[in-house]
Amino acid sequence: MATAHVVFATITGNNEDIADIITEKLEQLGVDVTESEISQTDADSLEKTDIAVICPYTYDEGQLPEEGMDFYDDLQDVDLSGKVYGVAGSGDTFYGDDFCVAVDAFGKALKDAGAAQGADNVKINLEPEDDDIKTLDAFAEKLVNKAK
Ligand SMILES: Cc1cc2nc3c(=O)[nH]c(=O)nc-3n(C[C@H](O)[C@H](O)[C@H](O)COP(=O)(O)O)c2cc1C
Fold first, then answer.
1. Confidence at 122, pLDDT banded by 50, 70, 90
2. Is the CB of residue 41 below 6 angstroms from any atom belonging to ligand 1?
3. What are the CA-CA distances from residue 122 to residues 1, 100, 118, 119, 139 (Å)?
4. Alpha helices for the chain (secondary structure H)
5. What burial class does residue 119 get, using C-beta atoms within 10 Å of its C-beta: 0-12 exposed, 13-18 middle, 19+ buried?
6. Dist CA 112 CA 2 (whole Å)
7. Which of 60, 98, 109, 141 is the most exposed place for a label (fewest CB within 10 A)?
8. How far is the CA of 100 from the centre of ligand 1 (A)?
9. Per-residue pLDDT tens over the stretch 8-21
10. pLDDT tens sequence across 58-89
11. Which atom of ligand 1 lies at the shortest distance from residue 123's CA?
12. Complete domains list, the chain, with CATH
C-alpha cells in the first residue's frame, strides 16, 4: 500500500480543511495517510513516505507561515528522490501578486529536495468550496497515479 504524509499550516482553519479533504480522498484511493501540523513535523519524516503533500497559508504580503520556517529550511537537507509531491494551499486573491506565494515556495523546495511533481500546484481563495473540493480530489488522484 502506498503511503502519504499531508502537512498543513493554518491560522483560521482553511488549510487544515484542505489537508482534510486531500487526506480523505487519498484514503478512499487506498493510501495509508499521516496528517500533521507543520510546526509538529520534522522535514525528514517526508523521507519515509511515498507521497508528500504540503498545504500552507500565505501571510503578510507573500510571507511563508512563521511556524513553518524550520520545516521549510530543513527541506534543504532532506533527500526526496523517488518521492512524489503536491502542494495545495489557501490564500486570498485580495493580495494580488502575493496570492498563495507560499504554495509555489514549498513546491520549489520539494522539487529542489529531489521529489517529482505529481500534480499542478493548487491555489484556493479562502475556504474550499464545492468546485475546489473537485479540484482537490483530482489533485489527489493524480498524485496516486504518479506514485504507481
Ligand atoms: C494579515 C494577513 C496577511 C495576509 N497576506 C496574504 C498574502 O500575502 N497572500 C495571500 O494569498 N493571502 C494572504 N492572506 C490571506 C490568508 O492566506 C487566507 O485567509 C488563508 O485562507 C488563511 O489560511 P488558514 O485559514 O489556513 O489560516 C493574509 C491574511 C492576513 C490576515
1. very high
2. no
3. 25, 9, 12, 8, 8
4. 14-28, 69-74, 101-112, 130-147
5. buried
6. 23
7. 60
8. 8
9. 999 999 999 999 99
10. 999 999 999 999 999 999 999 999 999 999 99
11. 11
12. 3-147 (3.40.50.360)
Q: What is the pLDDT of residues 24-60, one digit of tens each?
A: 999 999 999 999 999 999 999 999 999 999 999 999 9
What is the pTM assigned to this prediction? 0.98
Task: Give 148 Cα–ligand 1 centroid separation in angstroms.
Answer: 34
Residue entry with cell 519524516:
45
Q: Using a 6 Å cutoff on CB, does residue 97 contact ligand 1?
A: no
Angle CA 63–6–27, to nearest 5: 150
Helix (H) or strand (E) holding 33: strand 32-37
Nearest-atom index, ligand 1, CA of 124: 21
pLDDT surpasses 90 at 1 = no
- Indicate which atom in ligand 1 lies nearest the CA of residue 9: 26
SS3 of 65, please?
A: coil
